[in-house]
């Protein structure tokens, strides 16, 4: 006869609405119910045939017994003697007393041995650090809940058998509170909510879980968005779970259409697209970005609340920092002939993507260009030269002729230039800095901060500008004065600029000023990085840049 000390008793009531429907076999029911513990159907069948199962209080040795609904079921499982070998791997122990320990599990470490994986697990290391666990029977001594191999964070371990039983009961009664951090693809709608979808084995892939069409076990998760990347590609969620189904958070978030970043199982298409981005974004997302962040429970012996918060490991928060980086969008303005294009060329030579509104307009005015098409529709064929481009002589004459003509042209062309600038910025959103030369940036009426984050103004004396415009464009003083009159006064422009460059000297002097601006922009990026990192630390979403992420235990009343 089995020693009662070596048996673990389970009890349940069969509900056909959630447990597979009327006619579900007894062994199938128990296999599904114990799936989270990875108890095989063969082991369940052996226990039933061995007289360790009851149905409504009567012994049952028939694994194939079909259930109708409402039966009270029990199953006693013989505990398998542990042959797990102790290993001297490192453990990050955040708290320990004679009854229990709280660990910070790193990603990439499996919690307990399994068929084909007898060593290299957290349990192997536990046996080395806490030899008293040898007194517990079973293949997973001390383990009262699990984290997936690639999930990091807080794990509660029982160090004695009475505490293990007490904690297991607390988990079953939902008296243990767990909150995770999950980085998901995209931007979930709304301010958060509850997910109450059942979870069961995927009918096609038995290693996966799914939200089944019928059956499955009840599962409840609550999520709250706390941050979204500037480009909307990923969001950080706080997720509290009220049940502990296998892969619960991963399945539930995927059901929203926002699988976890790095999760190739439940978000294969999003993961493949993410990997194609390459670079540090792909490298850091080599595992699912899920972290057990907060844990709160009643100490079974001391009867006090114990609460822990543990920041995620560096790969997690470094990915947040990388995703949170905003491209510096810098505009260039100045009066005609001040040297904006020369300064823009210097920034391009330093490796920054650049945009020229003048070049965009030239493309729009070329044969077949959208600008040529719109001007010809508005003013007729007179607007076009024989080759289909905009007739520059006609355009200049019209500009000189009256304010209404100039306004009409601006209303047609400026939105096209803005569209080109938006496309340019979107194409280079992952760059550190981009520069856009837009002579009429302020005059366009675009809302401040919409198109650029800061502006560089170029100043040049009138005599110097007149010489350059006469030599380079053939403009006379009257045309220069008219062109200047269509813009804000130079001092008004420069007053709205973050940086001002004086361009009355030679090219070397201009380049030196450009290099100083690049250094200042790099300093601003460092300050932004430090501020964002500090915000993550303040929220508990990151550890310090150096050293081990800290954890903060607290007692009842904190």
From TrEMBL:
Q: What class of enzyme is it?
A: transferase
Q: Name one Pfam family in it.
A: CoaE
Q: Which family does it belong to?
A: Belongs to the CoaE family.
GO BP, sorted A to Z: coenzyme A biosynthetic process; enzyme-directed rRNA pseudouridine synthesis
InterPro entries the record matches: Depp_CoAkinase (IPR001977), P-loop_NTPase (IPR027417), PsdUridine_synth_cat_dom_sf (IPR020103), PsdUridine_synth_RluA-like_CS (IPR006224), PsdUridine_synth_RluC/D (IPR006225), PsdUridine_synth_RsuA/RluA (IPR006145), RluA_PseudoU_synthase (IPR050188), S4_RNA-bd_sf (IPR036986)
CDD domains linked to this entry: DPCK, PseudoU_synth_RluA_like, S4
Record keyword Oxidoreductase present:
no
Reaction it catalyzes: 3'-dephospho-CoA + ATP = ADP + CoA + H(+)
Q: What is this protein called?
A: Dephospho-CoA kinase
The metabolic or biological pathway listed in the UniProt record of this protein is: Cofactor biosynthesis; coenzyme A biosynthesis; CoA from (R)-pantothenate: step 5/5
Primary location class: cytoplasm
| UniProt: ATP binding residues | 337-342
The alphabetical list of record keywords is: ATP-binding, Coenzyme A biosynthesis, Cytoplasm, Isomerase, Kinase, Nucleotide-binding, RNA-binding, Transferase
Domain Pseudouridine synthase RsuA/RluA-like per the UniProt entry, residue ranges: 100-255
Can you name a GO cellular component term?
cytoplasm
Question: Which NCBIfam families does the UniProt entry name for this protein?
Answer: dephospho-CoA kinase, rluA_subfam
**Species annotation:** Desulfovibrio sp. U5L
């Amino acid at each position: 006869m089995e020693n009662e000390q070596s048996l673990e008793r389970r009890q349940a009531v069969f509900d056909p609405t959630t447990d597979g429907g009327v006619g579900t076999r007894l062994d199938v029911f128990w296999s599904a119910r114990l799936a989270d513990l990875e108890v095989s159907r063969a082991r369940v069948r052996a226990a039933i045939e061995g007289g360790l199962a009851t149905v409504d209080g009567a012994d049952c040795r028939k694994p194939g017994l079909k259930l109708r609904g409402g039966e009270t079921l029990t199953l006693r499982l013989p505990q398998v003697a542990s042959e797990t070998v102790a290993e001297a791997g490192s453990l990050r122990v955040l708290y320990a007393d004679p009854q229990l320990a709280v660990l910070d599990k790193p990603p990439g470490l499996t919690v307990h041995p399994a068929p084909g994986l007898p060593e290299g697990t957290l349990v192997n290391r536990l046996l080395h650090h806490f030899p008293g666990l040898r007194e517990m029977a079973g293949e997973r001594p001390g383990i009262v809940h699990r984290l997936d191999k690639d999930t990091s964070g807080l794990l509660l371990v029982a160090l004695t058998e009475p505490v293990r039983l007490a904690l297991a009961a607390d988990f079953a009664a939902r008296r243990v509170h767990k909150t995770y951090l999950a980085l998901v693809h995209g931007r979930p709608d709304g301010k958060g909510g509850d997910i109450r979808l059942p979870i069961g084995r995927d009918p096609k892939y038995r290693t996966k879980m799914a939200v089944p069409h019928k059956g499955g076990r009840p599962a409840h998760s609550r999520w709250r968005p706390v941050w979204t990347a500037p480009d909307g590609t990923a969001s950080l969620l706080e997720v509290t779970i009220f049940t502990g189904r296998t892969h619960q958070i991963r399945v539930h978030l995927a059901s929203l259409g926002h699988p976890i970043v790095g999760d190739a199982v439940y978000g294969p298409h999003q993961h493949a697209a993410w990997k194609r981005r390459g670079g540090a974004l792909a490298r850091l997302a080599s595992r699912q970005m899920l972290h057990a962040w907060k844990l709160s429970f009643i100490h079974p012996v001391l009867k006090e609340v114990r609460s822990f918060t543990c920041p995620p490991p560096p790969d997690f928060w470094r990915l947040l920092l990388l995703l949170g980086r905003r491209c510096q969008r810098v505009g260039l303005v100045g009066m005609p002939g001040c040297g904006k294009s020369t300064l823009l060329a210097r920034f391009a030579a330093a490796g920054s993507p650049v945009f020229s509104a003048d070049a965009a307009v030239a493309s729009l005015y070329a044969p077949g260009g959208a600008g040529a098409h719109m001007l010809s529709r508005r003013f007729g064929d007179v607007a076009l030269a024989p080759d289909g481009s905009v007739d520059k002589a006609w355009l200049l004459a019209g500009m000189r002729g009256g304010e209404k003509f100039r306004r009409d042209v601006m209303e047609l062309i400026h939105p096209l230039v803005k569209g080109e600038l938006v496309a340019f910025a979107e194409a280079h959103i992952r760059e550190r800095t981009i520069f856009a030369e837009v002579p009429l940036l302020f005059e366009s009426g675009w809302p401040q901060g919409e198109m650029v984050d800061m502006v560089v103004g170029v100043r040049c004396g009138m005599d110097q500008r007149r010489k350059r415009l006469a030599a380079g464009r053939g403009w006379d003083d009257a045309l220069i004065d008219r062109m200047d009159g269509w813009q804000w006064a130079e001092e008004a422009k420069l007053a709205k600029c973050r940086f001002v460059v004086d361009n009355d000297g030679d090219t070397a002097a201009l380049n030196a000023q450009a290099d100083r601006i690049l250094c200042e922009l790099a300093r601003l990026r460092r300050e932004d990085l430090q501020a964002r990192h500090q915000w993550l630390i303040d929220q508990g979403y990151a550890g310090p840049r150096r050293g081990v992420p800290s954890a903060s235990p607290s007692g009842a009343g904190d």
